[in-house]
Amino acid sequence: MKIDIISGFLGAGKTTLIKKLIKEALFNEKVAIIENEYGEIGIDGDILREESIQVKEITSGCICCSISGSFESAIEEIVDKYNPMRIIIEPSGVAKLSQIIATLKKHRDRGKINSIITVIDVKQFEVYMTNFGEFYIDQIRNAKTVVLSRTQDVDNKHILQVLKGIKKVNPGCSVIITPWDKLSGENILEVLEDRRESSLKEIQFIKKPLNNAYARAQIRSEGLVAKDVFETWGQETPEIFDKENLKGILKKLGLGEYGYVLRAKGIVRSSENKWIAFDYVPGEVEVRNISPDYNGRICVIGKDLRVDKLQKLFSSEE
Question: Which residues form the CobW C-terminal domain (predicted)?
Fold first, then answer.
């Protein structure tokens, strides 16, 4: 059995990448997913279930922190109950990749780690390196392949700067810089499994030194775990949202009055008697239609969150 780890910081695009791989490359395989949401409200598991894939959710914390026992039992349950050909593990966006790998090594008898991937949003790279160096650097350093997301939204100079930062931390990793819509899922899988013969083989390491800002970015306290740095607020909601109004609400999250919001996502009912999913990362808002669900859910992750204001923002009282 193959085990693939698809990690990445909050909102980088992990779930989108998994959906692409399943739809375009893994459709003939029996695949199970362990989906770890940071916080009590699960969102991405429902989105993945739209692809008819078995999903095991863990929502009580980070895989790599206080719930490693739950993580290990989830692996055992999936193997015993479904006997999949492949397990994809999607850790929460604030998980330490090194600790996930260490946990999986205890289960060598159940499956082989096939690929270790970190998804990086090129638009947020410098901000997250500066503010959350320990978690971010750990995810880069321990990846075999780094997949850049949203490269279509920036110029080559920006991509080059991000690439230099990645290679400074992890010179040996492969890096995919091509926009995802230009690559098939099979193309990407070949890189992840080191099967490719094309020009995707290896992006040349650029030896020019990094700006000192990156060196200063790393948080010094090696004992930190996600719960010491990040806060989460989530709730189930029967509220009905208009798409355009919801976009306006999400844009307000970047104003600072609700705390430093790193990520927001949810599934809610719309005023057109449909269901919509939303995603927010700083500077970017996405709202899209999805299949009906049993109840609305909202999850916000960040620092110094103003819970009272968030509750009001997402309620009809606002």
Answer: 230-318
Q: Kindly provide the b/e burial profile for residues 215-251, where b requires at least 16 CB atoms within 10 angstroms of the residue's own CB.
A: eebbeeeeeebbeeebbbbbbebeeebebeebeebbe
Number of structural domains the chain divides into? 2
How many CB atoms are closer than 10 A to CB 29? 11
SS3 helix, strand, coil % of the chain, rounded to 5? 35, 25, 35
State how far the Cα of 152 lies from the Cα of 291, in Å rounded to an integer.
Answer: 28
- For strands 260-270 and 240-241, give the pairing: parallel
Please list the residues that pair with 276 across neighbouring strands.
268, 289
* Cα–Cα distance for residue pair 252/48, rounded to 1 Å: 28
- What is the percent of the chain where pLDDT is above 90? 35
Tell me the one-letter amino acid at 306: R
Longest dimension (CA), the chain: 58
User: Do the beta carbons of residue 96 and residue 26 sit within 8 Å?
Assistant: no
Q: What pLDDT sits at residue 87? A: 86
**Which two tokens mark 134?**
């320990």
Q: How confident is the model at residue 5 (pLDDT cuts 50, 70, 90)?
A: very high
Domain termination residue (choose one: 188, 217, 246): 217
Which residue carries 């392949």 as its tokens?
145
List residues bridging with 232 in a β-sheet: 301
Query: Measured between alpha carbons, how far is 252 from 65 in angstroms, rounded to an integer?
Result: 31
Q: Which long-range contacts (CB under 8 A, 24 or more apart) does 182-186 make?
A: 184/24, 184/25, 185/20, 185/21, 185/22, 185/23, 185/24, 185/25, 185/26, 186/24, 186/25
Say which CATH number the domain at 80 has. 3.40.50.300
Whether 224 is in a domain gets the answer: no
Model-wide pTM > 0.85? no
DSSP-derived 3-state class of residue 170: coil
Alpha carbon distance 79, 187 (integer Å): 28
